[in-house]
Structure formats: structure tokens, C-alpha cells
């Protein structure tokens, strides 16, 4: 992953001319890309680690695996939120970890935590570096130095159990690496968040990730059978059965712990055979409310497809425009995408049941193509964001979830908060939304907002983000459905779990990380 | 619920003559029932509460709601495990709480906890009193006195949201009370554990209960949307959305906390329309292995029925004998029960998909009757246990869970441990087993063991229980899939979650219950 944008350079592309023209018309931007800085010329803050510390860390993980070079530090400077990327575009020194460590295994992670506890060095666990909430910022907290612990060498598939459908995967495996290892055995995890191509197994667990096929295969936390966690206090091996009544489920305490309570080093996950058949079907609904009710009916009936999403009117229009359908056969209303994956019999049975429910709820089947188009382009949006940022457009996403009965109000409140805040700053936005994940009792809302950048786009977005965070909290939504908390959502955590909930988290942290070295400034207020 | 047996007197019945004859033949017992003690003549340990304490507690919950009379104390003397019931049959004083409190609402529970923290009085939260693991024993721990907090007055349905399919239920509602309140709105919870008729909503949450329809409607913890918990440290309101990435899921810390971390006072649960249709189908498989593989295939395909269970050969024989089929049409092999509940379309679609998979896996459809018979008698087994205990038969159940690949070995090890331990004591048992709950990655095993009682049946069972607990741990099972930990499974908790896991639980307890008044001696080693 490049240091100042999403993904790999070969996928970077300037905006097509017609989009530049559109942006000029709508937002009054010139459409000219800025020139980004040369990686080698970016100043970094000076490493605060002493030679003694570097020698000590080298003893733990090996001298080749303690990196303090400019490139290694720059590539671990933080995540990929829009403010992160805007900060990378600023002149002046970039924040960066004082060293990057590449431990080989669980025991080395344990030893690093022990050393850093003794020496009072902050530790930031790092998977794919795709956080969009400041979750991997190299913050020092109360310490003089911070090291980032890159887990990419924990990349093994172990303990495959095809009968039970479980596989133990190293925390450092990326989504594609994990799928490739599983595919060699005819298996798949089926976890496809937008960060799939770069994010890691450990990161998925640490952030309660949720993939685009969550209606069928579940959230990542649903898939977790066992967790292995290294903490300054020792090792936790959690999960002895598919389900248990042996007290609180401690997996659920470390799932979503975002590196503040321990370093997840291996995850045993539910896997399934690579689907023999995938059925694609796009649907149109007259409006968002009708579409949401239709999705609700199919999920509540226990007939959910594997992928189930619904774009609102604004996103539907833009998606179809991007797919090249401008001037073609216009589809009004809202577009829904379904895929159903599994055996031919399952796809047929579930497809018929879901289709009947969606049709009864006012849906019109559009055929396969729009669903296939969506799948084809589903990891591309972050590249588009980079191209937009380069031409002076502010583009960011955010998400929340609530009950079905509160969904329309939450959507309206979030849209209003974004619109009011940005319009109030003189940059009226375009706000699009889709239902990204569905549950019997509610759904998530995923928003994309686009506006013209002000001279200080970081402050501009900070204002809007705080307005929308407050609006989400006031409207009864969760501050994050699948992006996690990191540094950016921390101001809303006390509202989310209460003062006593925060005290509980602090008590757990004190038990496993008494020195407080793990990922300071994240998650726990 | 009567004090010394399960359930209500009108359901108590002596064993049928043919079963007495069978027991005489197999186990050499006379078949004559013992005469149980008169409730009023049972000596209780003297209440350790001072008049000042009783006055103080009366101020909190009202004088009528602090009960120290013989009957109230006796009815809260503990749960309903076989050792519990055998202890009730012993001469000598019974253990009992020093008082029983009946708080009216959440705030009164909070005030009781505050008072008992100040006065150093242990508190045992009490729902239906159906624990079979010593979870509601009136243990004083390090304190001089213990009060039992009976939550039956927290019996309201509030915040019904039929669109989202959620309902907030008071912790003290029993299963039937909750279903009745929901049925008035055309809704159902669908949580039917064997304790259903007496156990409470709060108890289900506190113990991670799992009902007989878990394949369709999920475990109780799956149903939980929000939890309200009163602790000595204050109130927790947990759960803001159907799913969230806002850090660890603290609901999962208080679900299964068994009254040691707080008192659950209200639970918001996922509910569904009362099923319009129920499809019943019984199946026969040549043997347990074939049946287990069949259940696995249907669950892993995402085509699980609502109820899905499989009896082993021994249980199949006995169940059919009990159903009056002796001498009728003999069914060899293993009996599986399925029900599919929902709309007619769902029952038809899911039924066809499940039937095809079960048939492909070697199952023979037996028609509806055995499934209906099972449903009709599904809450009756504890009454049968009482009748067996009365004629000198030891009868107890226990359960565990593991992955599909480990299921046969775990079953064999548990059966061997029970058989060896009891045969070694001169009382060879009959051991029966069924798969009670299924998951894509594994299943639970529910064992029933029957043997002749020795002169000290409590010690006899204690020996067997410890042997089988060790066998479960050694074979990789969880010490409990749905009975919870209480006092009886506590010796295996450190093995289950590790030393550090125990330290985490203790840290949480210290944060919410610094004086340690809540349910001493349970769950946390």
C-alpha cells in the first residue's frame, strides 16, 4: 500500500474527463490534480528510540526485523481516513512510529510486549493499515517512544478442519492471502469488506469488521471460533466450542479491542466450501423506504441472500452513472443488489424464497447485470476517493446502525447534519447512502459525502464529522457499525457504553496491560 | 415450584407400573417411593440478619417485600440439580437465605445493592430457581449473611417494537409469562429450554441459556439486543444497535455473568411473529454417526430447521419405549426430530431443502408423529427424574459442546467416564445422549445418566461428575454448553478460559462489585 493514498500504484488513475466536467459544474472545482510529494522527501519526526532500545528490540525479534528506515516508518505512519490522506498531503513533518517491528510469531509478540512494558514504550499493533478511524496512529500516549508492530509475518494457515468448517489463520494474513490459502482446500472465509484487498485477519477481529456478504456469512465476529491473544499479562486462548455457557464470552471482549487490550495473533474462523453457484439479482424499488421494508421482510423471514444491499436514490443515480448508463435505460428509484451463494439447490431454494418476498414488497427484478457490475467494482471506491481528493474534492464515508423502525429518522438526521454543517461552511455536499448490512432487528447505513474542499479541508471535515457524530448519538444510532472506534470515534464512546462501561474497559485493560503500553489514545476514553 | 422437586404438584405422578418393573429388572430397585418430608417440618439454619438489617432492607423495598418466613426461605434454598434434590431429602437443617427480597423495579435493585455493599451482606439474584449447577445457592462467601433477590416483580413488557421485532422484557418474567405477553401482539420469543415453564428472562440471559429451537431462533444470547444491569457500581445500559463495532461487546460480558457481576433487570430481545405454520418431521438414521453427519450437512448448508435434534441409539430406544411404542413398530437406529416454523412459504421452501439434504445423508422420513410426541412431552423430563429419585434411582443430565470433528470422540469419552465411574462404584449406569443444539462448526451433546442409588447418592454422583468433568476438559469440550457454571462447574473454569481469563473476570468484578457481595462462590474461581 502506498504511503499517501489507497492501494497499489497500478490501480491509481486520474478521473475520467466526463467526471471532471461534472465536478466542475456541480462543485466549481477546476478538475486539475495536485502533484503529490515524493515519498523520499517527506520529513518525519525524529525517532525517539535510543540505541539501547533498538538493540534490546533486535534481541527479541532479530536485527533485520527492527526497521527505522524512512520508508518503513512512512508506510506505518497511520491509516487511510480522508483526514489521514489530507494530512499526508500537507507540508511539514509527518508523524511516524519510532521503529517498526516485524515479529515472527506469537512468542515474539509476547516478548516484545514484555520488553516494551519494562522499558515503557508504546506499542501500536498493525495489520493492513487500512483503519479509517485513526486506529493505527503512532501515538505515544504517556510514553517517550512508540513502536509499530507489523504482524505480516504471522501468515500461516494452521489447524484446518474441513469437517467442522474451521481454519486457524495467522493475524497478519491479508484477505486475499487468506482466501488463497483456503481456496487450495476448496474453502472460503467469505469476508469481503471494502478493505478486503489489504486489511488483515487480525485487524478484522480487532475492529469487528463486517463484510459485504454479511447477510449470508455473518459479521467477522460471528465467524470467530477461537482467538489467540498476546498481552503484557500473558497469553489468552479463548473459545473452546461453537457455543458455551461457561461464563461471559471473553472472545467478545477482545474482538473489537482494537489493539488496546492485546495483540491478536491467530484467529480460528468458520469457513465454508467455495460456493458452487452464485446467483446474482438486482432489484429496483420505488423509493428507499419501500426498499428498506423489502430487505427487512426477507431478513426477518429467515430468507436472507448472501449479499443484500440497497442504495438510496442519490447513490442509485450516481452508481448507474458510473456504470456508464447515463443516457441509457434510466432506472428511477432505488437499486438493491442480491447474491445467493452455495450449492445449486440452496441458491435455487433461497433465491425463490427471497425473490417472492422482494417482489411482494414492491421490488422489480432487474436481472443479473447490475449485481455483477457491483461485485466487479466493489473494492474500487477508495481509489476514486484519492482521485477526488487530488482535484480538490472532499470525499469521505461514515456508517452507523440502528433498528428498522429508527432507520429512516437516523438517515434523515445524518444527512441533515452533514448537509447543514458543510453547507454552513459554504460547501453544500452531495450525500449518498446505502444499507450495507442487514439483521432481523435492524440495519446499517453507509454514507458517502462529497463536497468542494476548503483551504483547510481537515478542519472542514472535522467540523462536519463532529456534527454528524453528535447527530448519530442523538438519533440513537451506534457511533460505528463496522469502521471501529480508533481515535476518531473515541469522543462518543462514553455515550455509547456509559461511564460504568468505560470503567469496565479500563479495568480489563489494567488487568492485561498494567503499564498501558498498548495502542494509547484509541478506543477507551 | 415446590421446594424439594421440580415443578408444580399437579404434574407430579408416581412411575407407571411397567417402568417400576423395568427398573427392578435392570437396576434391582424395589420401585417403592420414599415418603418426602413435610415442608413445614424442615429445619432451616437460623437467619443471620439483625433486626437493624431487616429494617434497613424494608426501607429499600418495603416491609412486605422482605420475607424471612420459613416458606419463603425454603423456596429459595437453591436450584434443581439432582444433588440439590437429594440434599432436600436429607434430614438435618437445610441451607437457606437469611431473607428473601422482592424488589419492585430496577431502582430498588440498585438500592438493595448499595445497602448490601455498605452493610456487607451477600446477594444472590434469583429468577426461576431452576439452576442445575448450584447457581442460586444461598452462599455467604466472606460475609455473615446472604439475601436472595427474587426478581419476579420485574414482570413487564415495555418498548415493544413490532417493526424491528424487538421487545423489552422484565427480568422476572417466566418463559410462559413472556410468551403470553408477546402473543397478545402476535409475537413470540421462541426460547424453549427444558426449564421454560419456570425459568426467567433474566436467568436466561445470566446463564447463556439455549432453547430447543436454537437452530432456528438462536441461543438466548443471540436474541439479546440490549441489557439493563444493576451493579453496586451503578447501572449499565448496553447495546445501541443490532450490531456495532464500538469496541468490545459488553453485552457478552454480562450475558453469562450468572449474577456475579450485576443483576440483569430488563432484556430487549429479538422476537418474531407467532409462526403461521409449523412443519413437523421425524427422521431415522442408521446410527448416531450417520445422523450427526446429516445434521451437519443441513446446518452447514444454511438450511437448518427451527428444531433439529438427534438421539443416540440408547435414547432412541428409551424415548420410543416411553412414547408407548414397545411392541409396536420398532425403529432401529437413531431418531432425529425437526420442526420448521414460519410462513407457509418458508416452511415449504426450507422443509424441501432440509429434507433433500437429510435424505441424501441417509435419513428416512418417519412422518410427523414422533416429532409431535417429542414436542408434547418436551418439558416433562424433570418430573420423571423426581419420580426416579423417589424410587432409589440416580438420574441426572449434563451437557457439553465441541466441533463436529471431535463430537464422536467427546461422546465416547463422556460415556466412558460416566460408565467407568459409576460401574466402579458398583452401579453400572444407563447413559443416553442426544445432539441438542447445532451450529455450522459443531454441536452440543446432552447426556442423561441413570443408575441405582448408593446409600450416599450425593457422594456417588459427586465422584461421577468430577470424572466426567475432567473427561470433558481432556477431550476438548466446553464444561457447559447451556447449563452455566454456578458452583458445580467452577473447578473447570480456569481450564476453560485460562489463568489470565480468570484475572480478567476478577478485574471486571472488582470494577462493578468492589465489595464482592454478588453471588459469592459462583462462576469465578
UniProtKB/TrEMBL annotation, chains A, B:
UniProt-listed SUPFAM superfamilies: FAD-binding/transporter-associated domain-like, FAD-linked oxidases, C-terminal domain
Keywords in alphabetical order: FAD, Flavoprotein
Domain FAD-binding PCMH-type positions: 93-274
Superkingdom, taxonomy of origin: Bacteria
Pfam family, one: FAD_binding_4
UniProt similarity note: Belongs to the FAD-binding oxidoreductase/transferase type 4 family.
Annotated protein name in UniProt: FAD-binding oxidoreductase
Source organism of the structure: Nocardia albiluteola
Classification lineage: Bacteria, Bacillati, Actinomycetota, Actinomycetes, Mycobacteriales
Amino acid at each position: 500500500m502506498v504511503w499517501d493514498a489507497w492501494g497499489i500504484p497500478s490501480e491509481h488513475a486520474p478521473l475520467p474527463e466526463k467526471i471532471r466536467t461534472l465536478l466542475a459544474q456541480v462543485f466549481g472545482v477546476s478538475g486539475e490534480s495536485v502533484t503529490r510529494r515524493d515519498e523520499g522527501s517527506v520529513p518525519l519526526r525524529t525517532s525517539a528510540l535510543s540505541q539501547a532500545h533498538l538493540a534490546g528490540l533486535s534481541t527479541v525479534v532479530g536485527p533485520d526485523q527492527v526497521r527505522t528506515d524512512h520508508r518503513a516508518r512512512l508506510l506505518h505512519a497511520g491509516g487511510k481516513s480522508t483526514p489521514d490522506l489530507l494530512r499526508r498531503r500537507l507540508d511539514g513533518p509527518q508523524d511516524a512510529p519510532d521503529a517498526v517491528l516485524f515479529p515472527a510469531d506469537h512468542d515474539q509478540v509476547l516478548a516484545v510486549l514484555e520488553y516494551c512494558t519494562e522499558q515503557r514504550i508504546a506499542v501500536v499493533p498493525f495489520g493492513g493499515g487500512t483503519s479509517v478511524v485513526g486506529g493505527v496512529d503512532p501515538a505515544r500516549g504517556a510514553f517517550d517512544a512508540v513502536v509499530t508492530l507489523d504482524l505480516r509475518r504471522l501468515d500461516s494457515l494452521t489447524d484446518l478442519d474441513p469437517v467442522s468448517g474451521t481454519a486457524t489463520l495467522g493475524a497478519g494474513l491479508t484477505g486475499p492471502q487468506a482466501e488463497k490459502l483456503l481456496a487450495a482446500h476448496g474453502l472460503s472465509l467469505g469476508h469481503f469488506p471494502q478493505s478486503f484487498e489489504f486489511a488483515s485477519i487480525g485487524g478484522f477481529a480487532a475492529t469487528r469488521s463486517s463484510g459485504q456478504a454479511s447477510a449470508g456469512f455473518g459479521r467477522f465476529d460471528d465467524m470467530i471460533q477461537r482467538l489467540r491473544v498476546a498481552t503484557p499479562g500473558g497469553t489468552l486462548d479463548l473459545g473452546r466450542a461453537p457455543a458455551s455457557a461457561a461464563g461471559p464470552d471473553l472472545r467478545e471482549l477482545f474482538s473489537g479491542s482494537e489493539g488496546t487490550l492485546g495483540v491478536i495473533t491467530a484467529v480460528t474462523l468458520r469457513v465454508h466450501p467455495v460456493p458452487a453457484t452464485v446467483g446474482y439479482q438486482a432489484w429496483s424499488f420505488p423509493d428507499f423506504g419501500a426498499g428498506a421494508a423489502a430487505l427487512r421482510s426477507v431478513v426477518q423471514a429467515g430468507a436472507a441472500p448472501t449479499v443484500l444491499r440497497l442504495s438510496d436514490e442519490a447513490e442509485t443515480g450516481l452508481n448507474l452513472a458510473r456504470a456508464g448508463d447515463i443516457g441509457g435505460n434510466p432506472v428511477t428509484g432505488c437499486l438493491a443488489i442480491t447474491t445467493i451463494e452455495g450449492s445449486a439447490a440452496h441458491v435455487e431454494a433461497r433465491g425463490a424464497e427471497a425473490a417472492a418476498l422482494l417482489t411482494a414488497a414492491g421490488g422489480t427484478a432487474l436481472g443479473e447485470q447490475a449485481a455483477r457490475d457491483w461485485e466487479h467494482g466493489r473494492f474500487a471506491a477508495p481509489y476514486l476517493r484519492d482521485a477526488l481528493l487530488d482535484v480538490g474534492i472532499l470525499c469521505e464515508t461514515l456508517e452507523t446502525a440502528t433498528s428498522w423502525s429508527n432507520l429512516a429518522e437516523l438517515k434523515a438526521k445524518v444527512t441533515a447534519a452533514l448537509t447543514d454543517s458543510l453547507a454552513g461552511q459554504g460547501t453544500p455536499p452531495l450525500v449518498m447512502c446505502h444499507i450495507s448490512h442487514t439483521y432481523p432487528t435492524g440495519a446499517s447505513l453507509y454514507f458517502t459525502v462529497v463536497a468542494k474542499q476548503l483551504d483547510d479541508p481537515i478542519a472542514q471535515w472535522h467540523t462536519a464529522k463532529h456534527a454528524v457524530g453528535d447527530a448519530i448519538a442523538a438519533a440513537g444510532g451506534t457511533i460505528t457499525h463496522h469502521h471501529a472506534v480508533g481515535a476518531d470515534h473515541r469522543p462518543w464512546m462514553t455515550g455509547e457504553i456509559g461511564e460504568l462501561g468505560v470503567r469496565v474497559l479500563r479495568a480489563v485493560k489494567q488487568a492485561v496491560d498494567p503499564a498501558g503500553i498498548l495502542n494509547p489514545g484509541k478506543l477507551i476514553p
